[in-house]
Amino acid sequence: MTASAWAFHPHVAAWSILVALTFAYALGVRRTGGARPRHLVAAVGALVLALVALGSPLADLAAHTSLTALVVQRMLLLLGVPPLAIAAIPPPLMARVTRPAPVDWALRRCSRPIVAVSVVTLIAVVTLTTVAVEAQGSSIWARVGLDLALVVAGFALWTPVSAHLPGTDRPSALGRAGYLIVQSVVPSFLAIVWIFAKHPLYPHFSAGPELFGVSPLLDQQLAGFVAKFATIAVLWTVAFVGLNRAQHAVSTGGDPDPLLWSDVERHLERAERRERRRVWLPPRPDELGSYLQPDDPEDQWRREDRA
């Protein structure tokens, strides 16, 4: 391994995005009434993990030297940053951020476990193809795009289990635990391939310098173990903690999944949006007769629910 692998390199694009997001967060919190200490702690945690993942030396090692370093970076962006970022947003700010119709639509769809598993699996596999790994090592813009895709996958992963997102159709506590276990298995199936492969699968890392004298094949096998066991450790821990909390709530006479005012407000907003989206549709041939009846004007309208 060469000494330059540990040298400091400024990552201007990533730092600029983080600075912009931090400024937007501070401004949003100020305009919506402030944040509690737990929100600020989560925000600091998300920022620190993002800086570790996107700064030197981990980002440089992930881009040019080690598949294991790339996996560690991906775990931070997928399993660490998104849940802390969600927890960092106070309810008033969360309601404002998720109110736009496209954002609300995406959150509602991703709150369905099958959709979330599909999104995470697709992004996880595509971003680990040899073409994608080669691109992120040679182009800073490809690297930024792939990192953003991983963060999006992370938000999709945590949407079905997060109580901080208003109006999402979350499964039950047992359903959430099962969902997390499935997420720990399906998207990380490539880890099994890495562990049992007989030769390196990524020429990009094979051509680079060795990290601590570790061969590319051994580095690939270590990456498989890190990807598999880190994912299982994080997601299974969250699953069992969620089950224990739900059981405690039931045993004390509480509701493990209470209906929050933010959920009610979001459903009311969706109803108002549907009312505003009434559209005139031309009649079908079999409906033409009813449209010609002057004494029944209500039949002249059909509504399309696009929400």
Give a brief outline of the structure.
The protein has about 300 residues and is mostly helical. It has helices spanning about 10-30, 35-55, 60-65, 65-90, 90-95, 100-110, 115-125, 130-140, 140-160, 175-185, 190-195, 205, 215-250, 260-275, 290.
**Whole-number radius of gyration?**
24 Å
The biggest sheet, with number of strands, parallel, antiparallel or mixed sense and barrel status, is: none
Q: Alpha-carbon distance between the termini?
A: 55 Å
Unreliable residue runs: 290-307
Total individual domains:
1
Instruction: State the shape.
Output: globular
**Percent in helix:** 55-70%
List keywords for this structure.
single chain; about 300 residues; mainly alpha; disordered C terminus
What does this structure look like?
With 307 residues, the chain is mostly helical. The protein has one domain (3-251). Helix content is 67%, strand content 0%. It has helices at 12-31, 37-54, 58-64, 67-88, 91-97, 101-110, 113-126, 130-138, 140-158, 173-185, 190-196, 203-206, 216-251, 261-276, 288-291. α2 runs antiparallel to α4 and α3 (58-64) crosses α4 (67-88). The protein is globular, with a radius of gyration of 24 Å. The N and C termini lie far apart (55 Å).
